[in-house]
Each structure stands twice: as C-alpha cells, then as structure tokens.
C-alpha cells in the first residue's frame, strides 16, 4: 500500500511539478524531451537524498520536491546551502476501517418500517 502511494506521488511530481503532462511520445523530439525530464527528475531526487542525508532524515521523500527543483534552478547558483530545503513533517499513516457503499439504485435503502396500510372495504 505504501509503495503504491509513493509511486503515485512520483508520477504526480513528473506531471505537475515538472510540466510533463503526457508520458507518451511518438516522435524523436518528444522521446528526447521525456528522457531529459527523466534525467532532471533523477537529479532532483539526488538533491533530495543528499539534503536528507545532511540533515539526518531517514526518509528522503519528506524533503520537498518542488523546493528541490527551485534549489537546483536558482538557489544553487546563489550559494544557498542544501540543508535549507523545506522538510515535510513525518506523518503516520493510520489504517481506517473500510466501508462498502451500495450504489446500485437511485434511492437509498429503507431503514425504517413503512406505516401500516389502511384496509379499504
């Protein structure tokens, strides 16, 4: 479950933060564009890994991806240290009970008894 969540957030970073909306390509130029974004993604993840290592954080996924992108594009040249990257708080994933929702009909399930019918003579 946790690995699936990590994979979904990684794909979201590729699509939203790195502006790579479509991951498929047919022309050589688009294939090169996808490969360059993949290399840039790995570079950002390496910066996150080093920042987590320098700060003593056991999970590099807690370091902000968008902040690492900004650091690589601007702050690295300005001399801002890698330890200045934003870190998300450690959150504990709690398991919650699952509920099945019945969506087969347009009307809800009758939970009370209907009123008694009058006898017509």
Report on the architecture of this protein:
The protein has helices spanning 2-17, 28-55, 65-78. The chain has 121 residues and is mainly α. Helix 2 packs across helix 3 (65-78).
Write the layout of secondary structure elements.
Elements: H1 2-17, H2 28-55, H3 65-78
Which features would summarize this protein structure in a list?
mainly alpha; 3 helices; elongated
The CA-CA distance between the termini, in Å, is 64 Å
* Helical segment count: 3
How much of the sequence is in beta strands?
A: under 5%
Indicate the overall shape: elongated
* Major sheet summary line: none
Structural class based on helices, strands and sheet pairing? mainly alpha
- The low-confidence parts are none
> What proportion of the residues is helical, as a percent range?
40-55%
Radius of gyration in whole Å, from Cα? 25 Å
Query: What's the count of strands?
Result: 0
* Overall average pLDDT: 79
Q: How would you spell out the order of helices and strands?
A: HHH
Task: Kindly summarize this structure in a few lines.
Helices cover about 50% and strands about 0% of the residues. It is mainly alpha-helical and about 120 residues long. The chain has a domain at about 1-85.
């Amino acid at each position: 479950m946790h690995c699936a969540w990590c994979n979904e957030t990684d794909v979201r970073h590729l699509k939203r933060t790195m502006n790579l909306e479509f991951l498929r390509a047919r022309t050589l130029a688009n294939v090169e564009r996808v490969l360059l974004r993949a290399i840039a993604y790995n570079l950002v993840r390496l910066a996150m890994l080093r920042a987590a290592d320098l700060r003593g954080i056991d999970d590099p996924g807690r370091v902000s991806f968008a902040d690492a992108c900004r650091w690589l594009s601007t702050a690295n040249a300005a001399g801002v240290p890698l330890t200045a990257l934003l870190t998300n708080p450690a959150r504990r994933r709690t398991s919650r009970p699952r509920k099945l929702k019945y969506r087969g009909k347009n009307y809800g399930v009758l939970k009370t008894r209907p009123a008694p019918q009058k006898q017509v003579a």
